[in-house]
Design goal:
The chain has five helices and four strands. By secondary structure, it is mainly α. Helix 2 packs across helix 3. The chain binds a DNA duplex (13 and 13 nucleotides) through helix 2, helix 3 and strand 2.
DNA sequence: CATTTGACTTGTG
DNA sequence: CCACAAGCCAAAT
């Protein structure tokens, strides 16, 4: 069965361990789709509600959440990560510590 | 087939 | 650190 790019990306995201995060660019690269960071965001946007995919473990290359700081989605994502002990400093994650790039 | 769009990234000032 | 520009590329229109 030929996996669609969307499925590859979801699979990669599903493999991100709790307490870690990954960036759009990194996820795309790990899915074998370099330079498709934007596509990652697009696919996540299509993610069905209630999906088991840990979409919140994906942030941008700046170590920040790609949503307006005031938005509900931003706060929800930040909370979910903090619960997994991902530390935020000035609304930013230290990727040197929390970025996941494989096993 | 041309254009727009987007949960991005990197460089510059 | 913030703003803006350019680069990038698959999907949707």
């Amino acid at each position: 069965m030929t996996p669609t790019n969307r499925e590859r990306i979801w699979q990669v995201i599903d493999a991100i361990p709790a307490g870690k995060v990954s960036t759009y660019g990194t996820v795309a690269a790990m899915a074998g789709l370099p330079r498709q960071a934007r596509a990652v965001g697009k696919y996540l946007a299509e993610l069905p509600v209630g999906s088991k995919i840990p979409w919140y473990r994906v942030i941008n290359a700046q170590g920040k959440i790609s949503f307006p700081v005031a938005s509900t989605r931003f706060l929800k994502q930040k909370q979910l990560l903090e619960v997994e002990s991902v530390r935020f400093t000035n609304n930013k994650v230290n990727l040197k510590v929390f970025l996941w790039q494989g096993d």
